[in-house]
Every structure is written in C-alpha cells, then in structure tokens.
Amino acid sequence: MSVSQRLACAFTLTFSCPSSTSSRSFARSRAFFSLPSLRFRFLSPLLAPPPSTAFPRSIMPPNKRRGVQQRWKEKSNPRGSSQAMEGASAATTEAVTSRLDGLNITENNGEMHVMASPSQFDSVAQQNQLSVPGQKAVWKPKSYGTMSGGTTVEVEKVPANHTEAGVQSNGAETTATERNRAILSIIFRDNLLESFKVDSSTYSYAQIRATFYPKFENEKSDQEIRMRMTEMVSKGLATLEVSLKHSGSLFMYAGHEGGAYAKNSFGNVYTAVGVFVLGRMFREAWSSLASKKEAEFNDFLERSRMCVSMELVTAVLGDHGQRPREDYAVVTAVTELGHGKPRFYSTPEVIAFCRKWRLPTNHVWLFSTRKSVTSFFAAYDALCEEGTATSVCKALDEVADITIPGSKDHIKAQGEILEGLVARIVTRESAKQMEEVLRDFPPPPAEGAGFDLGPSLREICAANRSDEKQQIRALLESVGTSFCPDYADWFGKEAGDFHSRNVDRSVLTKFLQAHPADNSTAKLQELIRLMREKRYPAAFKCYYNFHRVDSLSKDNLYYKMVIHVHSDSAFRRYQKEMRHNPRLWPLYRGFFVDINLFKANKERAAEIAKNTNMGHDFSAGNDTSGPDAFADEDANLMIKLKFLTYKLRTFLIRNGLPILFKDGPGAYRTYYLRQMNIWGTSTMKQKEMSKMLDEWAVYIRRKYGHKQLKSDIYLSEAEPFLEQYAKRSPMNQVLVGSAGNLVRSEDFLAIVDGVDEEGDLDKEREIAPLTPAPTIKESVTKEEGLIVFFPGIPGCAKSALCKELLNTPGGLGDDRPVKSLMGDLIKGRYWQKVAEERRKKPCSIMLADKNAPNEEVWRQIENMCRSTRASAVPIVPDSEGTDSNPFSLDALAIFMFRVLQRANHPGNLDKASPNAGYVLLMFYHLYEGKSRQDFEAELIERFGSLVKMPLLKPDRTPLPDSLKSVLEEGINLYRLHVKQHGRLDSTKGAYAKEWTKWEKQMRETLFSNAEYLNAIQVPFESVVTKVLEQLKTVAKGEYATPSTEKRKLGTIVFAAISLPVPEIHNLLTNISGKNCKVEAFIKDNPLIDTLKKAHITLAHKKSHGVAAVANYGQFLNRNADLGLTAFLFSDKLAALEARLGSVDGEKIDSKNDWPHVTVWTGEGVTAKEANTLPQLVLQGKATRIEIDPPHILTGQVEFF
User: Fold this and answer.
1) pLDDT class for 141, splitting at 50, 70, 90?
2) Residue 3 and residue 25: Cα distance in Å, rounded?
3) Nearest Cα to 1128, choosing from 1174, 1165, 1088, 1178?
4) CA-to-CA distance for 879 and 891, rounded, in angstroms?
5) 747 exposure class (CB count in 10 Å sphere: 0-12, 13-18, 19+)
6) Which residues pair with 328 in a beta bridge?
C-alpha cells in the first residue's frame, strides 16, 4: 500500500468511525524486544509492557477538599468578554489554519519524511474506552465516552480510494484546509471549554506523559550527606553510585505520539533538536535497520507508556562550559508511567534497556566498601579545583569497585571540561545486578559508523538561519516519520498560545472540581491543590492537546498541562510536606500531564466507581518496597559535586557578563570573590583566579566597550583568551584546565532569542554583586560610614526606634555623627537622597527610616556602600516566619494593629486610611517566596551582619482563630485582586466591595483581640536596649557571622599522619641530653622554636597520583600507631625516621620509600629534600642517631 493510500485509508477510518480502535495513520511494527533469560527479577519490566487496567482500584475520596475555605471567588470581566473572545478566536483560528494548511507528508525513496500534513492529528484519533473484566487490556489509555447526546467533531471525509496523486493535489489540499478549519472552529469559535460545565456527571482523567527525577534539595550540609553516605556503605546497607554530569539540557521522549519535552516546555527548538539527535543516534547504531528499529522503539514506548530522559549535549543551543565536539545525548533515566506513580529504572535496568536499543549510556562507578567510598570523596576533594575529564575518570577508575564506561566518551564527544559528578545512594544489590547486566548485555556495535547519515545538526541549523520555525521544520523533516509522524506539538500548539493564558486557570479549576476517574488522577489533584494552597512559586500551563483533536466533543475535552516550578524553594517546601504526608506523590522536574475532561452517564459512572473503589491502595503506584528499602531521610540521598574549571567558565565568566558590562570591573570583582567564598574555594586558588579574571575583565571591556557580549556565544571570546592565558605557565594551565580547539558556533546556533528557555544555564545558586563578607573581625573604622536600614513592614516600629537611636547619648560608642532620614518626609527618590547625604558626611551613621523590602533596594544600598565607603547593617523584626514568608501571621497581626493605632501619620497610613489592611498585605507579599532562613542568610551574605529587633514574646499563646481566619481571608482576597488588577488600588476594581467589607472585619477583629495583641509584644524599652547592644557590637567588629557550615574545598594535596608537636619537642630534648652531637646541633639551630607542625607524609598527589592519596580516605581522622626509630641530621636538614604501625588493627604503609618526620630545614631548603638524608648518611654527609627502644606515639591520619 502506498503512502497516499495509507493516508486515505486512515482518513476514512478515522472520520467514519472515530471510536474504532483499529484506526491508524501509519502501519506500525508491533514487535517488542525480548531480553535473554535473566538471573534476577529486577529487569522483568523490560520483557513486556506491564499489565494495564482502565482504572486503578483505589482512589482518593472525591469529597476531599482544602482545610481552609476561601470566601472570595474570582470574578470574570463583565464587559464584552464574549465578543472579544469570539473575535480573537476567529482571528486565531484563521492564523492557525494558515499555518496548518501547508502540512503534507510525502514519500521519498521508500522513507516517510514530514513536510507537514493535514493528517497529523489522525494517528491518535481513538476515544478512550473502559476495559472490560476478562478482556485483554490495551496499554494505551482509552477515554470514557460521553453522555448520550454528545456531539463529536464533524470534518470533511476523504474517499478511501484516494490515490497518492490525489492526496497531493490541490483538491486534497483544499480538503485539508477545510478539515483544519472545521477542527479549529470547534475549539475556538464554539468555545468548547467555556461551554463545558462541571456537574455531578463530570470526571477528569489525568496521566503523567513525561517526567524526570524529583529535584533533590538536601537540608543537611554536603559534609553531613557525605558522612551519612559513607556510614551506610560501611555498614553494608547501600552502595554509592556515581555518574558523570554531562553539560547540556534535559530532553525527554515518550514516543512519537507521547511527545518530546524539554524541562518546562515542548514544541520548540529544544525539543526539535532533541528529536533530531535521537533519530540520528538510531541511524548511527542500526544503519540499514534504523527505520525498522525506530518504529519498534516508538511502538514500545507507546504501548508501555514509558519516557526516556536524556542529557542533550549540542553546540547549537548555547554555550555551557565547553562547546561539544559532537552533538549527542546520553540517557539518564527510563521511566514507566503506567497508571500509578512513575517508576524510575535502576541504573542496571537503564543500561540493559539502552544496550538493547543501542542508546548512549553514561559513565558510572559503584563503591560498595568503606575503603572505596572514602577514597572517592577524597579523590574529588583532591581534584575539585583542577579536575578535568581525563584526570577525574582515571582517578575514579582506580578507586571504584565496579566501573562501567559510557558508550559516549566525554573526552571525545564533549571535551575535557567536566561539569561535575552526581553521587547517590542505591541498594546494596546494585553491584551484583550490574555485574549480571554487563555479562548478559555486552556493548552493542555501531553499525552506522562510516555511513552517510545525511546532513548533520549543525549543517541543518546553518542552512536555515532565517527564523526559529524554519529551523524546527527543517529538523523535523530530516528526522523522518518514525520519530515525527506529524508536527502537532510544534505548530499545532501555536493554536493554543492565544488562549493559554485564559485556559490555564479555567482548565485547572474544572480539572480540580471534577470527580477523579482513577487513583492517579486523584493523587495529581491532591498535588496541585497543595501547591496552590501553599502558594508555591509554580505555573500550571495548559495547552490544547492536538493529538486528540479528532476525539473532541462538547462533553469530551483534552489538554496538556505543564507544571512549571519557578523556584527551587518550591521543591524544598514540598519535600517538607511529604515528610508529614508520605502518601503524597513527588513533585517532579519536567512534569507533563495529559488531561481528559468528560461527562459520564449513570452506567459509566457506576463502572468508574466500581473500578476505583475495590479496596486496594495504589498510592505508591509502581513503587515497591522490601526489606532493603531505605528510611525516608536516606531514600533520596544525593549530592552534586562540580568542578572549578567548569564553574570558572559558566558562573564566573558567562554569568558575570551582565555585572561586568553594567556595573563595571569593581562590581564584577565583588561578584566573583563572593561566589568563590560561597563555594569555599581555597585561598591560593582565589588569588590565581582573581588575577586571571581581572585580566579577562580588562580584555573583554576593551574589545566590546559598552556592548555586552552575548552569553550564548561567550566561549567565542573566552576560549581564545583562556588558551593564551594557559600557555604562559604550567600553573596557568592547571588553573584553566583545558582550552583551545574552539568549535565556532555562530553560523549554526539554533535561534532561541538568547534566552535559556529551559533554565539549564543557571542550575547553581547565584547572587547579584554583593559587598564582600569580612573573613576576619573588622571594625567599622571612623573614616568609614555606616548605613542602618530596615527590611521590614509598616508598623514594625522602625521610626520610633530611629528616634531613640538618634537621641542615644554617645551614639554607637564612637564620635561619628548620627543622622536619620524619614522616608515619609522625603520628596522624590529616597535612596538617591540618602546617597547625597552620605557624600556630604561620609563618616556619619545614617539611619535609613524607610522600609527596604526587596533585592532591588538592597542592591542600591550595596552600590551606595561601594561609592561612599560605607558599611551597611540591616535591622529586621524577629519572627519565626512561614515556609514562604519571613514574617509569621502573628507578626503581621501586630504590624496591622500598630498601624491602626496611629493618628496623623506623615505617610497617611494610619487608622484614617480606608485601605490600611491592603497596604500592609502588599508589603507582606513583597517578601513572598523567601523562608525566614533564606531571608536572613541572604542579608548576612550581602552585608556581613544582621541585627534582630525583638517583637514577640517567646512564651506567648497561639494566635486566636478569629485573627488567623481574617488574615488568611485577606491574603486570599489580595491574591485574587492582584491576579485580575495587578497593583490597582483596592478601592477600585472588581473586588472593591469585598475589600471594604474585609477592612471593616479586620479592624473589628484586631480591636476585639487588643488585650492579646498588647500582651504578646516585647516591651519597647527592651527592644531599644537589645538593638543598641547589637549595633555597638557590629560597629566594634565583634559581630560573629552565623556559621553556614561550608565544606573546605581544594586543599587536598597529600595524605599524612599528623603528630603531636609537644611530644616531638620532648623526644628531641631527651635525645640531646644523651648525645652531645645532637645537643650541639640543636644549640646551633633553632629547631625547637621553629617546629610548629609535624607529620609523616603517606602519599603526595604530584608524586604518587590522586588515587594513591584518595585511598587513605578510609583511615581519615583515625588514630595510627607508629614508632620513631632514629634521628638523622646534616648541616641543612633534620628528620626523625618512622616505622608505621596500624589503624584499628589494619597495617598502614607510606608511598614514600623512607617514612619520616621533617623537623628542620636550613634557609632555602625545601622539606622534600629530607628524603635524601639516608643517602647523605651513606655518603658521610649526615649523621644518624638510633632511638633504642623506638619512641612509640599515636598520630591521626589527615589530608592536607
């Protein structure tokens, strides 16, 4: 059957029988791959798709709702909404139709190539059906039909006997145009969503379509995580798995119908590049069998409802740490989506899966003993500031228990600059399972190597530079129909762009209101409700599902939802919720959900209820737990370990470009020094980096002037600079890591408008240019000024406090003048006025009596500090805060109560203000998204100190329910108001009446609880005393910055046994008392006075290699027994000979031929030369004094 005949047949079947399960646009292979007989059960999911039923048997009760009711309901725009929507819908329909009209599929040399096709939506036209007990279930989910009377989409039918020429003729194109217009008019003109009403017969069915691992946010420090990992491996409870972190973008593929996805989006150049690279890798691996295997692979993913996640590494999507030499992808996760919670394959399963399909795998190491895991961490510490792919892989190969090389060599494919390593805890059986996989699944051949694979990714992008859509179309045309049978996700999605802002809220509301059709839907509803109630920084973006457009009816709607988490704080907060409620589903990265809203008649509803209430609990989805399951706090133990050579390029050079060009070299230096301080970079490396980065700043500013270098091509300038800098000295070469062989990308860069759409370019926490934090206690000198400012909320008593500080005799304990500027009395720009006063009196103390609520103000204060030679100290009201705000509801109640007691306030914010409550809520929400811990930590990092103003008594009783309720109602009303009106005053807009009612209720509630509110406040006299004490401490330099417990990096050069110096002193004194030669030697040389530290070197990184040093990690911080057997000395050197003993009964040896303790060197002589003393003794140039019996002592194994 020709291509056109298959298309015509598909049209006929689809449009005449829209519910037929036999309707297909293309013939597909139904083959599943079969694996050889396995000796363990963990790979059983690979043998065939897991069994499917229409509905899991357990479901969350549909009447489960939020604990706190909202009184305010969102209002629609009452003026002309329907007319505007209809007009916009017609315009959108026309525009989208014109885009879709040109879609055709043509046949070329026996292969299908997508040129664009009106049949793009036909391949998934079937409606969902409920499974009947006893029938063989089909893995692809079916819809549940509609109530009687539901109308389906009617479109133009194509004759079954249509020929290929006919399909490509003008008549067929006209038919396609009419068909597209009919479909789009149903969606937009008839407003299906608006007319879809939720009632008792409404159900929602949701399935995760693609997802990646939940983002982990360790609450403990890196050092604590490492210690716990080491403990678990040492006790035989787990294995440590380490993999390379390739530097690219997240790409997920769920089959040709399931879709291609980036981290937070789909249907763009990122996913088009990903599909192209995936298809090309199949051709490289399978050669002439590629088309057959591509079809089998896609069919397998669709039937099994699976998603394959990859790190997409290309030179066309913008610069990371190094432009890759090849464009490729590495599989990082394989996920069974099923009908429950997603199940992620273990690494052995992933490798078996990839080797069967010949997909690229990552480089992986396993550490299953205390010796190997401690050696791994030591190896990283030795290489973290200078490691490259070659040195890191070599060291880890030497210390790991099992090494599985990646099918894509990082050095050959990407280069020497290595982003980092990912270490995580896995089950103790992983090592055994891995050995069996490696035995049963040998590395597959690359049959396509050397064959002509057609134009490369870079050639296609270079040839299509006119616009992004042209590049996308060219990429999709090249990949073929197995991976891209239609363009629906790329060009059909545009039809939803106009409506997306409007449908997001409506689809989500109806989805949450509808009865869940199965347990998975109920769990997803629970997750979304929680995120909305807690006001997590996330968006729920909805798009029309064009893959299901032929199944649309007024009672059967399909959407794609993208759950886009905007801030890492959301993951941290959600993890806390999961600890309280372990039955919650995780919040995933890359979270895409297919949604079906439909009506069900009584019989169908009863069938759904029967299937969802069988008494079984599927809350865990596909997860299994057994005797080896980890405790909750250990289940997600994972740590990212990045290398300084990568961070130099991305965080210090690329991400510093806006600061360098906007604020100048001084601000840039402040930025990169603060970043290195946060990372814990060693002092020596900071000095080397600073010298190079200062030179870089001069070089690039001189070349570009005030026009900023684009970050997506920054390596075009940075790489040649680094290459030349590295050539100057071996030390510079180590600092840079690797440079040269630049891949020029300007001619083939994908068009993404300079925006990192997936957010993959700033994965590590960054900060704006900050004032360097003092590394030692430094007083604020009298030649410098001090700015005292208030990140607070009206009613926090800052003006009253400033008045008291202004009138305090002696000020802050020195003779600097104190001046206060009240914001409510300053006309014009307040902070500009403060700067002017600072310039007039640079040595003064300025009390900035104005709320400073956000980072923009903090940045102005930092700039002021730099330009006027001042320090700054923030004073914040002390409060426990919430997960998302540094101020608790108790504090907010106090602030409101104080404001409503004011009269004749200069800023007109007092009891006479009709919207005082609204103004307080507006200030309160300026801090939204920051926990108390994050809020204080950022202020300390920026300004080096923090003063807390006491507010609430610690022994107070809880906030009364009436107060809590009225504040929560105000917060909910504020959010509704802001969504519809932005910053419009509360006395205007759709909620004006509600605001008037709430303001009155708020005042009544506060004053009825006046006795309580007065009782819980710290007396103001005590507040002034405490604040004054803290300010004086800061001014004197006695302020101790709170510890953030950062791990010390980059200092491991050698392993040694540290010895107690006093004991060495006593030994030398005893020897000199018994031997006149020694006595004369010690008398002539200041040996006792100069010996401050003593150690026995075990291994040195440069002399013996990283692995040799790392292998002593198992003995780290443990006591070692040893004996000192002789004292050797010459006119320039002196050392004690050592005989090493054991650590906890295990013999310890030194890599040095002669273990010793160097106790003295002459001027200009290095300690390393002490190794020559035995030879000097033989030559008669040194003296040896035996210590008999040997002096026994105990030292501790350490890294230096």
Assistant:
1) very low
2) 10
3) 1174
4) 7
5) exposed
6) 313
Average pLDDT over residues 804-823: 82
Q: What is the DSSP string of 59-109?
A: ---TT---SS-----PPPP-SSHHHHHHHHHHHHHHHHHHHHTT--EEEET
3-state SS, 152-207, equals ECCCCCCCCCCCHHHHCCHHHHHHHHHHHHHHHHHHHHCCHHHHCCCCCCEEEEEE
In the predicted structure, residue 341 carries a pLDDT above the cut 60: yes
φ and ψ of 861, to 5 deg: -65, -40
Task: Provide the 10 A C-beta neighbour count for residue 903.
Answer: 7
Summarised one tens digit per residue, pLDDT across range 245-296 is 999 999 999 998 889 999 888 988 999 999 999 999 999 999 889 999 999 9
pLDDT at 1191 > cutoff 80: yes
Q: Can you tell me the distance from the alpha carbon of 1043 to that of 97, in angstroms, rounded to the nearest whole number?
A: 61
Neighbours of 84 (CB within 10 A): 11
Q: What is the pLDDT of residue 15?
A: 33
Write out the two tokens for 904: 């004749």
Indicate whether this model's pTM tops 0.85. Answer: no
- Look-up of token digits 């106009």: 498
**Element (H or E) spanning 1194, and its range?**
strand 1183-1199
Going across the sheet that includes 638-642, the strands are: 402-404, 364-367, 238-245, 420-427, 638-642
Q: At what angle do helices 961-981 and 916-925 cross, to 10 degrees?
A: 80
Amino acid at 221: S
Cα(928)–Cα(666) distance, rounded to whole angstroms?
Answer: 31
pLDDT band at 760 (very low <50, low <70, confident <90, very high): very low
Give dist(CA 343, CA 271) in Å, integer.
Answer: 23
With a CB cutoff of 8 Å and minimum separation 6, the contacts of 169 are: none
Q: What's the rounded Cα separation, in Å, for the pair 593 and 145?
A: 20
CA distances 1102 to 374, 394, 1099, 1197, Å, are 20, 14, 9, 19
Q: Distance (Å, rounded) from C-alpha 817 to C-alpha 8?
A: 89
**Structure tokens belonging to residue 1037:** 């330099």
Q: What is the mean pLDDT of residues 188-212?
A: 85
What pLDDT digit, counting tens, does each position of 709-747 carry?
A: 888 888 889 999 999 999 999 899 989 888 766 555 445
Phi, psi of 264 (to 5 degrees): -135, 20
Per-residue pLDDT, averaged over 227-252, amounts to 92
Integer Cα distance of 90 and 73 in angstroms? 30
Contact 1039, 1033 (CB under 8 A): yes
d(CA 773, CA 1046): 14
Using the predicted structure, report yes or no on whether residue 1027 has a pLDDT greater than 80: yes
Catalytic residues: 245
CA distance 909 to 480: 66
Instruction: Mention every residue, 6+ apart, whose C-beta is less than 8 A from residue 64.
Output: 526
DSSP state letters, 911-953:
TT-TTHHHHHHHHHHTTTT--HHHHHHHHHHHHS--EEE--B-
Residues 1105, 394: Cα–Cα separation, whole Å: 10
Q: Name the residue with tokens 């040893």.
A: 1122
DSSP secondary structure letter of residue 649: I
Q: Which amino acid is at 288?
A: S
Tokens of 232: 């678990």
How do strand 845-851 and strand 818-822 relate by DSSP bridges?
Answer: parallel
* Range from 383-387, 559-563, 900-904, 1143-1147 carrying the lowest mean pLDDT: 1143-1147
pLDDT, residue 561, reads: 92
pLDDT tens digit sequence for 357-371: 999 999 999 999 999
Q: How many CB atoms lie within 10 A of CB 710?
A: 16
DSSP string, 545-594: -GGGGGG-BTTEEEEEEEEEE--HHHHHHHHHHHHH-TTSPP-EEEEEEE
